[in-house]
Amino acid sequence: MKKLFLIIGAPGSGKTTDASLIAEKHPEHLVHYSTGDMLRAEVASGSELGTEIESYISRGALVPLNIIVDTIVSAINHAPVPNVLIDGYPRSVEQMEAFDAIVAEEDGIDLASVIEVRVSEAVARERILGRAAEAAPGEGRSDDNEEVFNDRMKVYTDPLEAIQNFYTDKNLLHVIDGARTLEEVVADMDAFVLSKI
Ligand code: ADP
N or C: more exposed end of the chain, with fewer CB within 10 A? Predict the structure, then answer.
């Protein structure tokens, strides 16, 4: 049985950094996968699938449902430890419903919580555009620029309320204030996750 924590948050919320630091602290209990990192790894492999994925990422659009569902289900099934943090999922009502059906069908996955790392749009924008400005030439992400940021933010915000309501009704939503220092956010999320495993 795998115990699963889904972590959602706007681009720039820090969700990937927070989750990876927590998993690093408890390698014997917890593993972390970032949907964005897994998709970028596929792009970097140079595969045909990677080329298709890059065409979505570079414009801030969501990759198709079957690709992202296969990616996360395979990550969960191959996880070497019983507790799994996945950030960047779900990002649409369609993804949320698809995953809900999978959890209902499979005995092997227990959804422990959906953690929302909440920041204002202004904080998110400042962090992402700051990250883009600091990246060495050729080293930055293809989607860290103002125009694509606006699209990513809209893609994040549009289904957010429906996602919040769905998990609130199931008593699974846990909101964390992501506008504080990294240490504070990580300490908070760490304590919450440990309380559930
Ligand atoms: P951010 O959340 O900061 O935008 P991520 O690294 O989490 O960055 O995601 C980057 C891109 O990867 C997204 O804009 C999207 O194209 C793709 N992606 C990530 N997660 C998903 C998902 N759950 N469904 C579809 N596409 C995704």
Answer: N
Q: So where are the chain's domains?
A: 2-196
Helix (H) or strand (E) holding 177: strand 173-177
Which helix (H) or strand (E) covers residue 164, if one does?
helix 160-169
Asked if the peptide bond before residue 159 counts as cis, ω within 30 degrees of 0, the response is no
Residues pairing with 175 in the sheet: 116
Q: What is the DSSP letter of 82?
A: S
Which residue, by CA, sits nearest to atom 3 of ligand 1?
Answer: 11
Q: Is 125 in the pocket of ligand 1 (CB under 6 A)?
A: no
- Within 9-159, residue ranges assigned H as helices are 15-25, 35-44, 48-57, 65-78, 93-105, 121-134, 146-157
Ligand 1: which residue has its CA nearest to atom 23? 89
Q: What are the phi and psi torsion angles at 151 (to 5°)?
A: -70, -45
Q: Which amino acid is at 155?
A: V
Model pLDDT for residues 33-78, shown as the tens digit of each residue:
999 999 999 999 999 999 999 999 999 999 999 999 999 999 999 9
Topology of the domain comprising 2-196:
Rossmann fold (3.40.50)
Residue 89 Cβ contacting ligand 1 at under 6 Å: yes
